[in-house]
User: Fold these one by one.
Assistant:
Number 1:
Amino acid sequence: MANPKFMKPMQPDADLAAVIGAEPVARPTAVKKMWDYIKANGLQDKVNKRNINADDKLRKLFGKDQVTMFELAGILGKHLK
């Protein structure tokens, strides 16, 4: 059973809203929307698929040019209130 806190809609900050939209979303939905954006923009690293290359919008979220897929959830947590 899913943890109700985990499914609670949270408000994305301005940087995250630029990527996934401004409406409140549950954490799993935010992760899915991020992956939709990453795939739609071809940002998954061609050599190592576990890495995500940042474009200008994602660089604001990540604070660097590349992150691993394992860092993604932690980064999103910092941008959801």
Number 2:
Amino acid sequence: MSRAILLVDHGSRRSAANEQLERVADAVRERVSDCMVAIAHMELATPSISEAIGACVVAGADEIIVHPYFLAPGNHTTTDIPRLVEEAMHQHQGVSVRISEPLGLHPKLVDVILHRVDAV
């Protein structure tokens, strides 16, 4: 079984914002060696969720874990991303897909906040 992690953010008209997700993916790639890591933007930029899922499947993934790179479980993470993933999966029968929780309330995020505050 070949697994892929698909990081999904909102997408932006600003290329610097979109490039940040690629840098996050690079950091994840450095930590995992047993699966591919890809990115997608929910809207406003490419690759779309459908395009990225297709690329993962073409690269050999038969299991895809979608991680919404969002802070809170809002409408995008609970409704929009699941809908877009489901629509994309109609073209890829036999591929397992699961969606993780967004970043949410995690103790390490508190560490990041305090680090950023201390840096000011």
